[in-house]
Each structure stands twice: as C-alpha cells, then as structure tokens.
Amino acid sequence: GVKLLLHGLCSNTTVKFLDLKGNNLRIVGAEALGKLLRQNKSIRSLILEWNSLGLWEEGFSFFCQGLGANSFLQRLDLRNNQINHQGAGELAMALKRNASLQELDLRWNNIGLLGGRALLNCLQSNKTLKRLELAGNNVPSDILKAVEQALDHNQDRQTILSETRSRTQVLSKEVLSLKNEKAKQFLDLMDTIDRQKEEIARSSRMSAARVSQLQEALDEQLSIMNSLKAKLQMTEAALALSEQKVHNLGELLSAMKQEQTSMAECHLKELQQQKQEGADREGKLFRELSAASEKNLLLRNQVDELEKKCKVQQDQLFQVKQDLTNTTAELKLRAVQAEERLEVEKRRFKQSLEDVESLRLKEVDCMTQHIEASERSMQERIQRLEAIRIALEEELSQVKAAALTERGQAEEELIKVRNQARLEEQQRLEHLEEKLRLMTESRDEAQNCCLKQKQVVGEAQAKANQLSLHVDRLRRQIEELQQDLNSKEQEKVTEVNKVKVELQEQIGHLQAERTAQEGLKEKIAALERQLKALSSNHREALLDKEGEISMLLEKLRMKEAEISRIREEEAQRASFLQNAIMAYVQGSPLGPLSPRK
C-alpha cells in the first residue's frame, strides 16, 4: 500500500507536507521513498518518525541517494529509526550533494562517534542546513558543539546572502526607477521643446501674415500718393500751358479771365478735397501703424517669454544634473557602508578566533596543572609508601628471628600495594592521554573551523568585490546617461540658437519697420506731451477743488462742534428746569398729599 501511495505521489504537484510516522516501512518502502524524492518537486516537509529505516541498509542507501538527488525538500524528520554510524555516513554523502534541506531531525538513533564525525565533515560542503538535532545518539559533546558552530556559521552565511540579495535588488530597483525618471524627464523636455517649436512657428507665421498685410496697406498708400503726385504734376503742366497760352494769347486774357478764375476756384476746391482725403488716409495709416507697434510689443513680449522658458528649461536640466550627482553620492555612500560592514564582520571573526584560541590555551593550561597536581600526589604517595616500607624493614630486622611468617605476609602485602599503585598510576596516565588526545582533536577541529571561517571571509570578500564591480557598472551606466543628456542638451542648445537667429532676423525686420515708425512715435510723443500738460492742469484744478473740499469739511466740523455745544447747553438747561420743577413740586402743599393717593 505504501509503495502504491508513494508511486502516485511521484507525479503529484500539490502535496507539500507528508507525514508517515509509525508505519513500519521496510526495504520496499525505503526504495519507494527514494524514488519519490528523486521525482517529486512539490513536497517541502517529510516526517518518517518510528519506522526503523536504519535496519535495512540497502533500502536506506537507496533512500539516501534519492535525498541527495532532491532539490526541493526543506524539512526531514528521522527520529527513532535505528540509524547506525553507516547510515549516518550515507546521510552525510547525501547531504554533501543536497542543496535545499534546511532542517534534519536525527534524535534517538544509534549514530555514535563515527556517524557524528561523518555528519560534521559533510557540513563543510553543505551550506544550506540550518538545524540538525542529534540528541540521544551517543555523540560526544565536542562534536555536538562543532556541529552547532557549523550550523550557526551556515545561518550567518545565509543571512549575509539574503542581505546581499536584498541590497542588490534594492539597488537594481533604484537604478531602474532612476532610469525611468530620467526617461520621463527626457520625454517631457522633448515634448516641451516640440511645443515651443510649434509656438514659435505659429508666432512666425502670424507675424509674417501681419507684416504682409502691413506691406500691402503701405503699397496701397504709396500708390495713392503716386496718383496724387501725378495729378499735381498734371495740374502743374496744365498751369504751365495756360501761362504759355496767356503769354501767347494776351488778347484772349481779358475775355477768359472770368472763366480762368472760375476754373481756378474749382481746382482749389478739388485740391482741398484731395488734401482732406490725404489727411484722413494719413490718420488711418497712423492708427494702423500704432496697431502694428502694439503687435510688435506683443511679439517682443512673446520673445521674452520664450527666453524665460529657455532659462527655466536650463534650470531644470541643472536640477537634473544635481539629482544625478546626489544619486551617485548616495551609491558611493552605500558602497562605503557595505565595505564598513564587511570590515566589522572581519573584526568579529577575528575576535571569535582569538576567543577560541584563548579558550584552547586556558584548557591546555588547566589540563597541564591537573597533570602536575596528579604527578605531585603520586610522588607523595610513593614517598609515603617508601617510608612505610623502611619502617616495615626496620621492624622486620628487629623481628626477623621471631616472625619469619609475618615477614613473608608483610612482603606480599607490600607487593600488592605496589601493584595496586602501579595499576592506578597506569589508569590515570591512560585517562590523561585520552584527555590530551581529545584536546588535540578539539584543537584540530578549532583550526578547521578557523580555516572555514577564513574561507567564508574570502567568499564574503569575493562577493564584496562583485558588488563593487556591479556598483562600478552602475556608475558607468550613469556616466553614459549623463553623456547622452549632455549630447541632447547640446542639440537643444543648437536648436535654441537657430530659433534665436531666426528671431533676431525677425527682430531686424521689425527694427527696420520701427525706424519707419519713429517719426510717427515723435508725433505721438508730442500728443502725449499735450495730454500731460492737460493732465497737469486737470491735477491742479483737482488740487484746488480738494483744498476747497478740505475747507468745507473744516467748516462742517466747526458747525458740528457748535451744534454739540448748543445741545449740551440745552441739556443743562433742561436739567435745571427739571430740578426747579421738582423743587417746586416738593415745596408745594400738594406734595405731602401725594403719598396718600
């Protein structure tokens, strides 16, 4: 049944937690579990407590091969499975290949010293395992401590990796956000430049149309003036011919004087009418020229506004450059902070190494002191035994003749005591040698741990170098973006210069027209002077009226003061009259009768 169940779970993609506690799995079940671990990609937690998988070496080896090939399982529970040191060695080989398992529970098995060493050796290559439970396995305490140190080292390493990954992600996100902001700003600048170009083109078109209209009006006025000049020339020619005729036809003058006078009057009237029409046309032209001057002022204002906009855009570009410098400074600060953190971690590792070495030296000193004390005690005991032997020999020399039997017994007792002392000394020496051997092994393990920590420090330095290279790449990208921005700024400046040149040409044309209009402006200035004179006269009249108004206000105040004084006097009079009436009423005979009423 278990085989069929595990065979069905091989292709399952939804089950993440599998609990098979206390199911008495045998060889077939262990092989099915190995196959499941090779093929399944969804199970994250597997509980196999109380199944005695360690009794079946072949099945457990197949299970360990599947565990080594798996890359998705994170938690494995193998409590109370009777796993011996051979099974622990196979588990260690599987853990060397596995890169996903984070928690492994091996409590209450028979791993022993060899299995503990195998698991400790596998932790040198496995950097993902965070938790390993080995209670109730007859594993020495020094190996348990070394395993805990290796697990703590793995946890520290994974925390450092997670921090570096999060920092790289944050830096990449910030770089992407900066790129997006720069792209948006560049697009906004291009849009504003296009809009300004369109506005400039529209204004140039409007100004060209207005200038063409003014030129047409001027051409019409010039044609009218030319026609008037031609008429004047014709009249002058007619007058010359008439004078010649007068000289030639003196006789006809007397007869034709009246006709000539009438004709001259008619011509004068026509000339006056023509002069009036010219004056009206000149007034119209003055009005049109004033309108054109106002339009020129509007165009100048528009040009000033465009220059202001260009300045604003330059300020915006300067602000963008400042933002880029700020971002580069922030990236430099972050890189410096990362280097400082690495230095702090190096210092912490160095301190831990120094602490371990100091502890090892203290333990060695304690052991040497203990050995010296034991040697001293043994020497004292030997001296005591030798003193006892000497005393016994003296007693034996005194009692040789009387107690030969007692001498033999005493010699046997001495031999026994010596043998016991030698045995005790040998046992103590063996115990001390075992302790020294364990201390040397712990020292070797501490050195291995130091080497591992040095390797980790080297890896951290390599990662820091990689991060610095990544930061340099980001800086290069930022410099490239700055170069692009500078090139685009140069293009923009060239376009703005072109627009300025076109505007200067238009301004030159407008100045040419302005020179033509200065004569009209002088006349306008004369009219303005007259208006100023009239306004000054009007102001003087207003000031005079204001003085009169102030005088009238003072008179009103005086009258109001008089009225208030009269009112006060009337109030005083009324109070006097009231008091007099009250006194009169009180003094009259009707006064005492009033309360009866």
Automatic annotation (TrEMBL):
Q: What is this protein called?
A: LRC45 protein
Q: Which UniProt keywords apply?
A: Coiled coil, Cytoplasm, Cytoskeleton
Subcellular location(s): the record lists:
Cytoplasm, Cytoskeleton, Microtubule organizing center, Centrosome
TM ranges: none
Spell out the Pfam families in the cross-references: LRR_6
Q: Which Gene3D superfamilies does the protein's record reference?
A: Ribonuclease Inhibitor
Q: Which domain of life is it from?
A: Eukaryota
Provide the coiled-coil residue spans: 211-569
Please tell me the species this chain comes from: Casuarius casuarius
Primary localisation category:
cytoplasm
Q: What are the GO cellular component annotations? A: centrosome; plasma membrane
